[in-house]
Write a structure and sequence with these properties.
InterPro entries: 6-hairpin_glycosidase_sf (IPR008928), 6hp_glycosidase-like_sf (IPR012341), Glyco_hydro_88 (IPR010905), UG_Glycosaminoglycan_Hydrolase (IPR052369)
Family: Belongs to the glycosyl hydrolase 88 family.
Protein name: Glycosyl Hydrolase Family 88
Oligomer: single chain
Number of helices: 13
Keywords: Hydrolase
Organism: Pedobacter nyackensis
Mean pLDDT: 94
CATH topology: Glycosyltransferase
Radius of gyration: 21 Å
Bound molecules: glycine
Strand content: 5-15%
Strand order of the largest sheet: 5-6-7
Structural class: mainly alpha
Largest sheet: 3 strands, antiparallel
Number of strands: 9
Amino acid sequence: MIYQPITSFFKATLALIVLLSLSQFCFSQKLNYIPKKKVLSAINRNIEDATTQYKFLKNTIPKNKLPRTFENGRLITSNSDWWCSGFYPGTLFYLFELTRDSVLKTEGLRNLILLEKEQYNKGTHDLGFMINNSFGIANQLFPNKSYQNILITSAQSLASRFDPKVGCIRSWNNKKPGDFLVIIDNMMNLELLFNATKLSGDSTYYKIAIKHANTTMSNHFRSDYSSYHVLEYNTETGKPLLKRTDQGFGNESAWARGQAWGLYGFTMMYTETKNKKYLDFANHIANFIITNPNLPADQIPYWDFDVPKNPQTYRDASAAAIIASALIELAKFNKAGLATKYLTVAEKIILQFSTHQYKSANGQNGGFLLKHSVGSLPHNSEVDVPLTYADYYYVEAMKRYLNL
Ligand code: GLY
């Protein structure tokens, strides 16, 4: 009898050792992958061209505005409160990191001044996109206290939208009282919360990120690991009332960018927490995307996986760029077979983006890098145009590939 606790103690210790070694294996194995010469040389050319293009774009933007898209021969700009305002400076910083061209850095820093006030914006869930993808990158490249304070204040503003009963951060604001809308895109804003915990030591942000991701895992996904776009929650019960779309083809369809946000979001959850349940989940989402019979051979999805197709059906380069970047990250955490599958898809996307079909010629396309993205087809908004976030994740994907 007296030996029972000791035996249990040994069993528990042994289990812990096995678990720790397994988890070590899961997230620290070395990816033995040899990047393809053809892809590397395409990337080098693309980065050179992207630098030329973004300098061209810089010279067309009014100084108090941020670029948004280029439509019918006209540059469309936004103010800093538009959800995409962080992508332009973020892309400039990525390109600076790759080229050390100081013009890009100066232009990126100038844009941060326009964005700074958004740290106090509690009216949007998009602070991750706006602040983490701009100030977050600036802080990695040129760490300083002022950027860190802006990141923490932005995380406080984002966290103010969290409802413990629902277990989520509110995405869109109420149209009717009692509305609590959460979109799959919101997974992307959680990285800001993880960064705020690292910078401040306050675990509140980390816990909110985990809760939001877990609620999203339980409610936002179908059994095939495709996701709904919008969930309407009841704030009294905390339960979802309605699952639907806003930017997709139908309530039961798989809106391409939504699938991409989910893939990227759960990959990031694993990067940040090393909890294997997020790795498994991201792998399931990846499997839905890359084995989807409606994914064209060039791996650039139609704007919705379930839209009826004809030769005019639009592709969404932004979804492909996000998928490529996420798959390169996800490959790092998987065994060789799966990693190679993911990297092969990412390579195809990058190579396709290196052709004239998707890549803009210098001085064309308003200075944006990629053509053929879709903002929101049901709203007839930004259809078949360049978008700042397509450019951002495209450059990020190439940077991640070079880091392999
Ligand atoms: N978060 C908005 C979009 O993906 O269009």
